[in-house]
Structures are given as C-alpha cells and as structure tokens.
Design brief:
About 70% of the residues lie in helices and about 0% in strands. The protein has a domain of about 90 residues. It is mainly alpha-helical. Helix 6 runs antiparallel to helix 7. It has 13 helices and no strands. It comes from Pseudothermotoga lettingae (strain ATCC BAA-301 / DSM 14385 / NBRC 107922 / TMO).
C-alpha cells in the first residue's frame, strides 16, 4: 500500500472509531516504513489528553511483557511525557536497563527531563554532549533533552558544547534553540548567560528568541 493510501486508511479509521482507533495506530508503530510510523505517531498525538487512558493501559501492558528493546514503548514514553503523565516515571528508571542502544536510552532520559527529573539525568546528558565518543551522532537528542532542564548546569553544558567547533551547523543551531528554551523557562538564567563572556552566542540566542 502506498503512503497516500495509508494516510487515507488511517484517517478513515480515526473518523469511524475515534480514540478506539488508538490500539490499531499503536500497531502501526511497528511498520517497517518510517513514514507510516511517523503518520501513526502524529495521529496519536492529535488525540491529546483524550488518548491518555488508552495509552497508559497499552504502556503498562507492554512494560509487563518485559520485552528487550521494545520500540513501541519508546513512542509511548515520548507521547506520555509530552502529556506530562508523571505516573510513568518509576517505570522509566526500570526500563533503562531494557535498552542496549544509547539513542533509545536518550528517549527515556528526555522523558524524565520533561517530567521534572532533570536533576537525576543531567550528568549523563552532559556526558553525551561533551564527552561521549559518539557525541556527533547522539548530541542532537541530548541537547534537546537538556532544553527541558532550565538550570545553570544545563546552561553551562550547552555553552561548552557550542564552543566545540567540530559540531555541525545544524547541531549548533539546536544548541541555540535549547538555550533559548531554558532561558525562557527560567528567566533568571538569562543574566547568568549574558555574563559568560560569549557575546556572539548571546546575540544568536537573542535573535532566535526575538
């Protein structure tokens, strides 16, 4: 089935079933086609908080399966964290050991940051950005996770990362975005930021915000 047909099918299922379509959409998160998975995920997000009870049930069921490297769980973690569903936090810490891929673990670290546990994951996130030998591949994820931790430590980490000239233009732009996010969430950080003697970076963040 081509992509347009998939889109039409998904829209029809959603129109006919409403939130009851969510289990079927979750099944599509295992599709071998990246675009199909993305369409299914975006459709789930469109339901907003109305989807929360069903998503939580599916989440708990999959947690109890104890399957290693469960990709569907990562999608569920992402959307439930966006919904600020804090009841999943304890499960997230336990789920870290089920994934042997650092990129997958970063999805969980970012979810914990979104849910207010940034202090517990900030050190590992800074490690991924500044120290890890695979930082070029993992930096984008780690930087956007840091964007959910409006603290001085997160700010300093992002500023240090920006000084790394080996990072691509795209990653450096992500750093600018992340700094803008944390300074907007915690305006007191702006004064600290402007005193770090990085006038070029300050101006770029200012331009991004305004």
């Amino acid at each position: 089935m081509d992509l347009d047909n998939y889109k039409s099918l998904i829209e029809r299922i959603v129109t006919e079933k409403g939130v009851d379509a969510i289990p079927k959409l979750v099944e599509l998160l295992t599709d071998e086609n990246d675009e199909v998975r993305e369409i299914a995920f975006e459709t789930i997000q469109r339901f907003g908080d109305n989807a929360k009870p069903i998503l939580l049930k599916i989440f708990k069921d999959r947690v109890h399966r104890a399957q290693q490297n469960d990709i569907v769980l990562l999608y569920l973690i992402d959307v439930l964290a966006d919904m600020e569903e804090k009841c999943i936090k304890q499960d997230l810490y336990q789920l870290l050991s089920r994934y042997d891929n650092e990129s997958a673990q970063l999805v969980i670290y970012e979810a914990l940051a979104k849910l207010g546990d940034g202090d517990t994951v900030i050190d590992i996130l800074c490690y991924f950005v500044l120290e890890d030998e695979y930082k070029d591949q993992l930096a984008e994820q780690a930087i956007m996770a840091l964007a959910h931790i409006p603290s001085e430590k997160s700010l300093n980490c992002l500023v240090d990362a920006y000084k790394n000239k080996s990072f691509s233009t795209e990653i450096r732009q992500d750093i600018i975005k992340a700094i803008s996010m944390i300074t907007m969430k915690n305006p007191a950080l702006w004064d600290k930021f402007t005193k770090l003697n990085e006038p070029e970076l300050v101006e770029k963040v200012r331009q991004f915000v305004y």
